[in-house]
C-alpha cells in the first residue's frame, strides 16, 4: 500500500461516528456517516444533498477537498455532526469528479504517442465560484475555505505545524472589490473583527498566524501581453484557513501523470493562454503534493482542531448577533 493509500486508509478508520452493533453471536462496527459531511461526484449532486440540510446547520460552509492530497476531508469529517450542532456548520467537499486528480485523468490521451493536453480555456476550478454555489448566493452564509500545505513551504524559520488564517481586506479596502464578478456582498463583513484574539499563543512545535489578505499586483502571463491579478482578493464572506503539516511523499506509478509532472518541472505550461489565472488550482503538481502522515492527523486532532473550532465559534457567535 503506498503512502497515499495508507493515509487515506488511516483517515477512513477514524472518519465518522462508529457504533458497536450486535447480530446474533457476531459483533461488528457499523460506520454512521454524518449528513453534515457532503462528498458527491458532481456539483449538481452536491447541491442537491446540501439543499436537504436545514438552514440553521449551514450558516457556515466548511469547504474542503479541493486538493485531495491535503487531506482536509480526512481531518474534518469526524467532526461533522458536532460542528453542525455547535456552530451551524456543514462540511462540503469539492465534487470528486472536479478535483485536479479527476480532471487530469479525464484528459488522459487515448495513446501514449498522442499529445499531452493543455487545459481548455473554459475549464476552471475557481473556489469562490463553488463557494457562491454552496451558499446558494445567500449573503448571510459564511465560507471557511480549508486547505493544507506542507510545512516545508512555510517560512524556513517557521517550519512548524499549525494554521494560518487569511481574512478579507474588504472592510479596510472596499475599492479593491469594485471590479469583482462575484455577486455576494456579505451582509456582515465586520464578522472577522476580533478573530485574531481567538487563536492560541505559539506552543512548542505549533505556530498559528492570522493576517489580512494582501493586494496582488497585476501579473503578465509569460510570452503574452495578457494581464490579470495573480488571484482575486478573498471575498468578505470568506476566510482561508491553511493547516501546515509535515507530510510525506506520495507514490506516483501512472506513466501519464509522471510525464505531466516531468514536463511541468521542466517549465511546460499546461494552462490555457486565455484563462491561466483561473486555472492555477488544477496544475499537475497538486497530484504530487505531499500527503498527511498519521502524526499530522494526530496533531490536528489533539492540538490544532481546538483553534479551528475557535474560529467556527467566533463566526457562529457573530452570526447570532
What does this entry look like structurally?
By secondary structure, the chain is an alpha/beta fold. The chain has 8 helices and 11 strands. The chain has helices spanning 3-14, 43-51, 72-77, 80-87, 100-106, 127-134, 255-265, 294-320; strands spanning 17-23, 26-32, 37-38, 60-64, 89-93, 142-150, 162-167, 209-212, 218-220, 227-229, 238-245.
Which outline best applies?
globular
In spatial order, strands of the major sheet run 3-5-4-6-11-7-8
Biggest β-sheet strands, sense, barrel: 7 strands, mixed
Helical content (DSSP H or I, runs of 4+): 25-40%
End-to-end Cα distance: 50 Å
Number of helices: 8
Number of self-contained structural domains:
1
Uncertain stretches: 1-31
Oligomerization category of the chains in this entry: single chain
Strand content: 15-25%
Secondary-structure element order, N to C:
HEEEHEHHEHHEEEEEEHH
On the 0 to 100 scale, the average pLDDT is 83
Task: List the defining traits of the structure above.
321 residues, alpha/beta, seven-stranded mixed sheet, two-stranded antiparallel ribbon, globular, disordered N terminus
Brief overview, please?
The protein is built from eight helices and eleven strands.
Spell out the blueprint of helices and strands.
Elements: H1 3-14, E1 17-23, E2 26-32, E3 37-38, H2 43-51, E4 60-64, H3 72-77, H4 80-87, E5 89-93, H5 100-106, H6 127-134, E6 142-150, E7 162-167, E8 209-212, E9 218-220, E10 227-229, E11 238-245, H7 255-265, H8 294-320
Parallel strand pairs: 3-5, 4-5, 4-6, 6-11, 7-8
Antiparallel strand pairs: 1-2, 7-11, 9-10
